[in-house]
Amino acid sequence: xxxxxxxxxxxxxxxxxxxxxxxxxxxxxxxxxxxxxxxxxxxxxxxxxxxxxxxxxxxxxxxxxxx
Length: 67
Hints:
Layout: H1 2-8, H2 16-30, H3 33-61
């Protein structure tokens, strides 16, 4: 354990808040509002398509009860 302590000495250990801050700064510089809107619309259509597929499969596989 002593060797591991000497290896890390002199280096900054990133925390979650530092990493999150760096990612936010990168996103502000490289991602536009139009790209975000496009991704939200595409995600919405994909989710609706998946829900429709699941409902279709449920209707195909439901048990028909008769008397």
